[in-house]
Amino acid sequence: MAQVDFVVRQTATLEQRVDAIQGALDARGFEASQAVDELGHLATEEWLPRNGARVVARAWTDPAFRQRLLADGRAAVMELGLTMPRHHRHLVVLENTATVQNVICCTLCSCTAFTVIGLPPDWYKDLEYRARVVRESRTVLKEMGLDLPAEVEIRVWDTTADTRYMVLPEQPPHTLGWPEEKLASIVTRDAMIGVARL
Amino acid sequence: MDGVHDLGGRQGFGRVRYTLNAPAFHASWEVRVNALYGHAVRRGIFNMDEYRHAIERMEPRHYLGAGYYERTLTSLATLCVEKGIVAHEELERRAGGAFPLAAPSARGRGNAPQRERFSPGDRVRVRLDFVPGHIRLPGYIRGKTGVVVSESPAYPFPDAHAHGIAAEDEPTYDVRFRSEDLWPNGADAAMVHVGVFQSYLERV
Q1: The one catalytic residue among A105, A111, A137, A185
Q2: Which of A22, A60, A72, B148 is in Cβ range 3.0-4.6 Å of A171 for a Cys bridge?
Q3: Which tens digits make up the pLDDT trace of A91-126?
Q4: B52 touches chain A (CB under 8 A)
Q5: Structurally, how many domains does chain A consist of?
Q6: What does DSSP assign to residue A109?
């Protein structure tokens, strides 16, 4: 009979593995389950694209705020009561124009200004977007439904450091004069990532 | 390290699986693991560079087959084991099965001995650095030349910070590259901006 040197164990499910690490941290006094409640709430109820939408709507209606936002994004979003993690020391706001389309990505992992534009969608973190958008930007945007005229320059921003980016979309002409709250309601996360125009 | 995580410019991938208003989370365990890693960073169990590096150290087949939050989970568990908070065996016992972790870390490094201050408009080349440890230099810009657009505040130097090595904080430079310089005759025309740490750059 062959000697059994090792036992191939089945990999635990993801749910079981999360339970394991959460339980181990709880057992050592790290208050993990409490953190799951608190940070889980922030992630699903607070870190949403509506935050960035407020920033965009304010920038569209208040030229002085827009200037401050473009000069120092972090300080400007804090004026609106938004927060950013300590390690996000810099927020660069990228202004789209009729001839410039900015697009953000993170080829090495999946970094985003999540407290401002919301936690990234699944496709942003998938291999396809990360691999292709820096090299085949126009093709990828077209596949995603944004067919840009040839004269529009594409600028791709790869989030390799802890500086964070958000795109300031162009205000659609038919919305000029709208109140700020109504403007905020048309701003999408994908427009602040730069894969859509409004 | 030149790992499989360094995806920028890799070919062979299909269409982005894009849907309108795609969710950030698909299951409640994803919300939990996102909270747990954030909590661990806040509690000082590990820093963001250690977190990212432990993802990069995942066995390539595991990395490529895992979704984003499985990578988060693997990094969190790996670092808790490496920091002595919990033994791998205990995690597997609690999980009731195998709990794959990332591979051990290689060595890190300190800041480059010679660093220069750059100004917007300066032409810079990305150094030909090949390191076994953590680095935030996507392979597609290595050796390439671009133009400095702006300077960031100083950040911890990732190559050191991911390995517990003391180093000076340093700025990153927003460097603008032409896609045709990065992939001659092999890219859509675009400007590609990358935040490049000072230690990775030299003046042209």
Answers
A1: A111
A2: A60
A3: 999 999 999 999 999 999 988 999 999 999 999 999
A4: yes
A5: 2
A6: S
Look up A109 and say whether it is catalytic: yes
Does ipTM exceed 0.90? yes
Per-residue burial over B69-85, b = 16 or more CB atoms within 10 Å of its CB, e = otherwise: bbbbbbbbbbbbbbeeb
Is A110 annotated in the active site? yes
Judged by a CB distance cut-off of 8 A, whether residue B195 touches chain A is yes
Would you give the distance in Å from CA A105 to the centre of its chain? 9
Provide the 3-class DSSP secondary structure of residue A154.
strand
- A92: domain CATH number is 3.90.330.10
> Which residues have CB under 8 Å from B191's CB, separation 6+?
A153, A154, A155, A156, B176, B177, B178, B179
Q: Which domains does chain B have, with CATH numbers?
A: 1-103 (1.10.472.20), 123-203 (2.30.30.50)
Q: A194 CB contacts (<8 Å, ≥6 apart)?
A: A94, A96, A101, A102, A103, A104, A167
What pLDDT, in 10s, does the model give residues A7-47? 668 999 999 999 999 999 999 999 999 999 999 999 999 99
Q: Which of A33, A109, A137, A185 is catalytic?
A: A109
B57 chain-A contacts, CB cut-off 8 A: none
B14/A contact by beta carbon, under 8 A: yes
